[in-house]
Design brief:
Elements: E1 6-7, E2 14-15, H1 26-42, H2 51-58, H3 61-69, E3 74-83, E4 90-104, E5 107-114, E6 117-126, E7 131-141, E8 147-148, E9 151-152, E10 160-163, E11 170-172, H4 181-201
Helix pairs in contact: 1-3
């Protein structure tokens, strides 16, 4: 195992692994990283003919992205009180969200994970005033199978991609078109590109 250490912001302490506080083991991190690499390298778009095919290849991607970016992202915690089953007591809950932001060659990548979803956004700087225009946005579930058989297991707002990289808007919504290969393959192609862009700025 590597022996490098990294400072933790604010308290001056050092931990062997930067994701130690998030209870992500090195084995889980490496497994998720390899899972994303396999997804990019081995999933063939022409094999995606139904949402069942998409689910079989993509259901773990949202989770794997979350595991990989959480150690390098900014953590936001939100505490709340909810009424318990008996309506006489409150239940404390803590929700975490991680935001990973990196820039490279005039392009910014922002990945947000939490509340059951992973959201990827890519923005490109345009003009002398470096106006940022969003060119790609992808949302996918964090913690559930996309489908059981050909029956979607997520709603339309949990799985989509908006792609403006070629000028005109391309919208991919697999839940609305579970048997349309063009939609399923377009969504997956955009997701593969986004993951490769994350790899480029990960270190």
């Amino acid at each position: 195992m590597s022996s490098w250490s990294q400072p933790i912001e604010g308290n001056g302490k050092f931990h062997l692994w930067p994701w130690e506080e998030e209870v992500i083991s090195t084995a889980e991190y490496e497994h998720s990283l390899q899972g994303l690499k396999n997804f990019v390298a081995k999933v063939k778009l022409t094999n995606l003919l139904s949402i069942e095919d998409l689910s079989a290849t993509t259901s773990l991607v949202g989770h794997d992205i979350a595991v990989v970016i959480a150690p390098k992202g900014r953590k936001i915690e939100k505490k709340s009180l909810e009424i318990g089953p008996g309506a006489s007591e409150f239940i404390r809950s803590l929700e975490r969200e991680y935001i990973f932001t990196r820039s490279m060659y005039g392009q910014e990548i922002v990945v947000t994970t939490g509340y059951g979803h992973t959201l990827i956004s890519e923005r490109r700087s345009i003009g002398f005033q470096t106006y940022q225009r969003e060119i790609l946005r992808i949302k996918l579930p964090l913690d559930r199978d996309i489908a059981f058989g050909n029956i979607p297991n997520v709603d339309d707002e949990s799985l989509w991609a908006l792609d403006l990289r070629r000028g005109s808007l391309q919208e991919y919504r697999p839940v609305k078109a579970p048997e349309d290969p063009a939609i399923l393959q377009g969504f997956t192609a955009a997701l593969k590109d986004a993951i490769q862009d994350i790899f480029a700025v990960l270190d």
